Give the backbone structure.
Amino acid sequence: MSSESARWIDHFPGNFMWSNACLVTKGMAPYGAVALGEIDQVCEKLGKRQDEPDAWREEWCALGARLERAADAAEVEGRRMTAGNCYLRAGMYWFTGERFVYPGAQKREIGRRAIECQTKGLLRRYPNVEKVEVPYEGTTLPALFLKAPGAKGRAPTVAVFDGMDNCKEMSVLFAGLEFAARGWHTLAIDGPGQGESLRLRDIKTRHDYEAAGSAAYDSIAQRPEVDPKQVVVMGYSFGGYYAPRIAAFEKRYCACVAFGAMHWKMEEWVDGIRRAVKSDARKSAQSHFQVPWVFGVKDLDEAVEMAKRFDLAGVAGRIECPFLVAHGANDRIVPPDSARRLYDAVGSRRKTLKIFTAGEGGAEHCQVDNRQVGVDYIADWIAANL
């Protein structure tokens, strides 16, 4: 990797925590959810403030607030589409700023503003997006349903589950828009431990994620525009555990995509975070509180024990539907060996392993350095396996 590309990917050399979070935000630029010039302005300020604990929140949230004010002004003046653009960017910056805020009232409020702005932006820019609630164990899970404008009759649909640091508002853009262009609908859902479900409803994750997967399928299958025999489940990042787990137990899905595998030994990954934050927190992609917050436990010690339940070793063999795992050769969060082990363990007779190299692009975690490359490959694979 050249120094120029390394600088683009690792914006804060020696600080992987900030660099990875920044790259996730940059990765939303092709979908109009951020602007690279605005990101550059924030990063110039942050480069001088890396030893200040509140700097990350202050700079990103200040940008989010500025864009939100611009959106409000445009809305008042009747410039609805411009307001939508500003709301989208404001929401993504609020979401980025929330990332390293300790769980509590402040984090909840920043998360609320992020979701509110993102939703306003999506509904203004994409009239084919619908807010839905998926019934789930006495409550509901928030989701966005993106209809494919050109679909005729009952069409294929992809249920997309997020990762640990992502949200449905992101996945409906980077995945849903491409799927819609191919005539497929998308249900982008914040499952337990994800996005709005975690931030505003305090619904923690669980190892038996097929409960959420079945709820999503039931919600999708009852829609008149959906072909219930052609529903695909996809998960990205931490969803690289969720989606295979769902496919193993919920047989009504016709195919499964792991958009980035998750660690084969989940407790080793969580223990690695525990060790990293004790020695040099900047070397970890996650803060010391992120995994415990998602898991619903008090600290990383308890999270390591809970992570032992997140095990696909005795589960992947139950997967029967067509299966794809897409991974980056330079993934520094989940090593490619985990993708190969998942592929080997999957029981399906129709399975594909795709490792993206630096030369073709998409070599980072979940192809965040060139996500369109990954999404195009996934969409082509789905088309070939429906």
Observations:
- The two ends are 37 Å apart (CA to CA).
- The chain has two domains: 1-125, 128-264+312-386.
